[in-house]
Amino acid sequence: MIGSMLGPAVQHLNLWKKRLGRVPESIWAHTGLETLVLADNDLSEVPAQIGLLRNLRTLDLGHNALTQVPEALGDLSGLADFLYLHDNRLTSLPSSLAYLTRLRYLNISENPFEAFPECICSMARLIELRVSDTGLTSLPPSIARLSHLRELHLRNNKLTSLPDSIGELRDLRQIDLRGNPLTHLPVAIATLPRLEKLDLRWVTTLAVPPWFADLEANGCAIYR
Fold first, then answer.
1. How many Å apart are CA 158 and CA 79, to the nearest integer?
2. What is d(CA 36, CA 74) in angstroms, rounded to the nearest whole number?
3. Which of the residues in the chain have pLDDT under 70?
4. Can you give the residue ranges of every domain in the chain?
């Protein structure tokens, strides 16, 4: 059935919620694919052949049962638009994902990560990063390498603070920290020139620092 959906030069393939159970072998022959949606298919693994799809710009593997993704995912050097890995069972990401230097949007929310995947900090073109509902306790100082980041979503984790290097993200517009047990925020946040929204709703452990007034005076909306 899947083979009949694939024309000789198909570029976009949406197999959302098809109850596949496994990735169809017929997909790997279509190396011209630019969009591949395999979300919500009870997938427990993704074969290394995914690395053959070098023209992919968007890949959606969300809402599955993946405990890992293959190193070959790092071969997708053309992946520039979206990578969805949310709502799986991932505890780490392979270091090869550091080669996805053109990627602009990454969602790894709703996975039980043991630590923030360091490879993400090499994705220098990221504009939006979603790492919500993972249980993270800290962010690495190397987060500062994401110099193009505009949106950072960290809702419902176990963060008590952020690294001072957050102040180096000069293009940052939104920080979502809802539902974290924060006890401290670095004053460097007050120096972010383009920050428009700091969301602290459901945070009950943070004393309001005096520099919040400076942020609000500069036009940043603080939700708390």
1. 30
2. 16
3. 1-8
4. 2-223
